[in-house]
Structure formats: C-alpha cells, structure tokens
Amino acid sequence: MSLEPPTYLSSLQSNIRGRPIPWEGAVRAGNIKEEHLKNIKAVDKVRKEQRKQTVENDLNGYRTLLVGGEGEESILEHAARRTDIIQYILVLATDLFNDVPTLASSLLELPKPYGPFISLLSISPNAEDHVPLLASNLLTHLVPLSMTRASKPLDRDTAALQRLFEYFSSLTKSQDSGLQDIGVQGFSSLLRTRKARQIFWNQRKETVYPLFETLRTASGAGKDADSTVWSGAASIRSADTSLGGGVGLQLLYHVLLVIWQLSFEGQLVGDELERNQEIVPLYTQLLRLSPKEKTTRLLLSTLYNLLTTNQTTLVPAAVVARLPGLLGNLGGRHLTDPDLLEDLKVLTEMLDDYTKTQTTFDEYAAEVQTGRLQWSPPHRNPTFWRDNARRILESNQGELPKKLAEILSKSWEDDKQVLAVACNDVGNLVKEVPEKRSQLEKLGLKARVMELMTESNEAVRWESLRAVGEWLRYSFDN
User: Fold this and answer.
1) Which pLDDT tens digit goes with each residue over 252-281?
2) Contact 69, 119 (CB under 8 A)
3) Which value, in Å, is the radius of gyration of the alpha carbons in the chain?
4) Mean of the per-residue pLDDT values for the chain?
5) What is the Cα–Cα distance from 478 to 473, expressed in whole angstroms?
6) How many CB atoms within 10 Å of residue 395?
C-alpha cells in the first residue's frame, strides 16, 4: 500500500524549493564550492527530462556532491553552518532520487552511502526542526531500496534503520498530530522487508508500544473496569474525521497499517502483543467502531495474520473477547472489498470450528489463560462450579489455580474488577472442593485473598470476604 506524502511535509518541501538562496554569496563566503554551484544550477528549476539527462551524464559528480568522495566533503558537510542550504539540498536530493533512480543506485554502491544524512538526524532535539525531518524523509527512499536489493542484510542498513526508528519514534510522541502522522508514515515506509520488521520489533518499547496507546485512545477507553474494550459496548462515537479521544481517521489508518505490516511476522509478535497489549480485545472493539471499510480491512487482515499463526493462544482469546459474534454482525454489512470478505470468511470458519469443540470448562480455562478475568457467565454459575471445580484444580497438574495465583499477585490498578472475579473463583473452589484447601494455600491464595479484605475497592473487599468466609466455614466445621 503506497501512501500520499504527509501534507505538512509536502508543504514544507514546496516552500523550501521556492526560497531564493544567494548562491554566489555562499561561494564567496566559502559555504559551498564553485563545483557545487555548477551542479546545482544544472538541475535547479528545470524540466524533469532535462534534469534526468544531466544527472545520468554525470552520476559520479552528483554522487560526490551529496555524499563526498575521496578526501572531499559533501556539500552538506561543507555548508554545515548554512541551515537554508542544507534544507534545500535535502529537498533537491530527494527530488533527484525520485526523478533519477540511477542516482540512488549509484549512491548505494558506496560502502557508507548514508553518512552525511544520518548525522543530520541528531542536529536538533526539537521534533519540529526541519533538517532532521527532511533528512529522515530522504533516507526512507534510500534504505528500503538498499534492503530490497541486497542478497543478505547489511550492517549499514541495520544501523540506519535503528537510528531512523528512534527518530520517527520521537515524532510519534509529539503533541502535534501532523508530526505524529509523519512519524507513523515513516515507520510504514521502512517496513517492507522481514529484516526491517524484526529490527522494528526489537525496538518495540519505543516503536510499537506507543502506537497501541493511540489505538486505545481511539477505542474510546483505557484498560479500566468501565472500559468499552472489556465490556463489549459498541457505538460509533464520532464523525468520520475522528474517533475516541480525538484521534483522526488518517492517523488511525496509518497506525493500523504499521501494525498490519508487523503482523506478517505473526509467529514472532503474536503472543507478546496479546500478553502485553491485549491486541485481540482491542482490535475487536476497534472493529465495532470502525467507520470506514479501509480501517475494517486492516483490522480484519491483522487479526487474520495473528490468529492463523498463533491458533493455540489467540483463538481462545478471540472467543473470550466475543469476536465470533461481531464477525457475524460484520457479515451483514454491505462490504465490497474482496480481500476483506475473504479474511472475514476464513476467520469466521476458524472460530466456528474452535467453538464447536469447546465446553464451558474450555471457555473458562481460555479466559484464565489470557491473564485477565471479567464477569463472563461461568463465574456466577453455581452449576458450573459444582461440575467443574475439581477438574479446575486437577487439570494439567493444577495449571489453572497457579494462573489464578499469578493473576491475584498483581495490583490491577487499572482494572480492579479482575481481582474481584479472581476472589470469587477462589471462594467457589474452596466451597466445592474443601479437601483441596491446602493446595490453594500452598499457592499463597488464602494469604492474598485475606490481604484484599482491606482493598479500597468495594467489589474486591466483598468478594475477598466471601472467599475467606468459605475457608472459615470449613475450619469451624472441622
């Protein structure tokens, strides 16, 4: 998927192309050389065909102009004190790479083609500074080209990608939505190869995770007890131009595009995205809110990539998140994109096949394994506990009680409901299988539940009191 250049960047480049620069004065001041000026004038403000012919007839000269040569500085290094000249050259170089592809190929024959440009990414800590912005845009033309042409990953490309991901990450954290969008589109332009996606994932704390904050904002709620992500409530809460939290549709689309590109490494990223970012319930909620077919397409395609490569872990999570019912509702919409319809069909069939073989116990176990509990039907059902409590304690060498202990060990500041549900479950296990109390006590569950009797959250206090009451009841009986 190709993207239109960000409006802010296109406007900046047009403005720089139109600025008058006193070139002869720059030569007299020693900011640039006569040879530099000759090469610039030959391609400045001329027709594309003439520019292409001029550069192709002197590839070595223009390569030297931009990155230097043996013992010779590039114009960017020579004019280091002239910000106006550096900005102009960065825009001109980007134009030349687009108009004369052989120039970019010629640069990539050098062992260090990125040197003068990479150094400009650190020229200012200000995210709104134009020089690093223009340098990063130029590099998004060169680095992916090098990676797609190389027979094996090159160290220079890896180093350049790491630095570019750092820079674009700083833009995505800006308060300016225009700069955020440039950063996200910068990510997208670099994620064309498996190696690039792996490097992006290796830097996930600064690259991937902040993007999920944007998605959570767009979903209309954070990870709290009243969150629509967890309650399953659905509504389109704004016009087409923005979703929850004022996230613009264009920014949302570009963030979804980046996560979709990353999802092609499903085996590498799937389980951790669910464990740390809870991508399945988040994407389920975003599907409910999706105002455009193009965002629906990316959401479904990402889920398809992740679920097909992580069926054991993510398909149960999708059932807990109530994705099957939502897919049925989507099937009733007037959708026309053939890829979207195919992904919808495959996902529906995959989830149908899974749910046909699942019992209520399987659903409960799947929910516990996700690491987050909600008041789904089994928790409040006395019949479920009578029929399944012993199995829960004994299945897979007590795996589920151990997981409950892990869940209860966390503070859940963002979602106290999880603690309340877990206390409810512990109380039911003690009630139905009292002779197994010692098993639960060895896991620290009795001590933890007693601690929660002083919890500030009323629901947690109530459920912990009920659970402790079951222990006391059997203690008195004995």
Assistant:
1) 999 999 999 999 999 999 999 998 999 999
2) no
3) 29
4) 89
5) 9
6) 14
